[in-house]
Specification:
Layout lengths: L2 H16 L4 H18 L12 H27 L8 E6 L5 H13 L3 E6 L5 E6 L5 H20 L1
Antiparallel strand pairs: 1-3, 2-3
Subcellular location: Cell membrane
Protein name: Na+/H+ antiporter subunit E
Organism: Shinella yambaruensis
């Protein structure tokens, strides 16, 4: 992605987050975006992989859907008089291999109510996930692989 476009995205994000759509605030967003990009430029290595904006949007929509569904499931579990929880940790074999992809997957899992990314194995092949209801770890693995991980691969490969 071109640096000017990235700075513009950072500035627009700043305007949206701050809620103040003024010229001085836009300039502050541009300066903050340029400084942020300057700080991380040595850590960014182009590897020839493309970002597909529509697939990223699809990933975002999937996250919003999963967020709503899991929030509802957790609320029902907590509100039920007899909480029949089976918490546990399961190992999820990773298909994603880049640090960015692993981090994104782990964060999406953590941000979804009822699940928490615990650790990544030293060889970066397994992600350990804690689930509030781990009664079907095979189904949970299938859901993550067919959902978040698949969308990440589509969006960033």
């Amino acid at each position: 992605m071109r640096p000017a476009f990235t700075v513009a995205l950072f500035a627009l994000a700043w305007l949206a987050v701050s809620g103040s759509f003024t010229i001085p605030n836009l300039l502050l967003g541009i300066v903050a975006g340029a400084l942020s990009l300057a700080l991380i430029r040595d850590h960014i290595r182009p590897d020839g992989r493309r970002i597909r904006p529509l697939k990223v949007l699809s990933l975002l929509l999937l996250f919003i859907k999963e967020l709503a569904l899991s929030a509802w499931k957790v609320a029902v579990l907590v509100a039920s008089p007899k909480m029949a929880l089976k918490p546990g940790i399961f190992a999820f074999p990773l298909t994603v291999d880049r640090d960015f992809e692993i981090t994104l997957l782990a964060n999406l899992i953590t941000l979804t109510p009822g699940t928490l990314s615990v650790d990544v194995s030293a060889d970066r092949k397994v992600l350990y996930v804690h689930a509030l209801d781990c009664s079907d770890p095979v189904g949970a693995r299938r859901d993550i692989a067919g959902g978040f991980e698949k969308k990440i691969l589509e969006a960033f490969r």
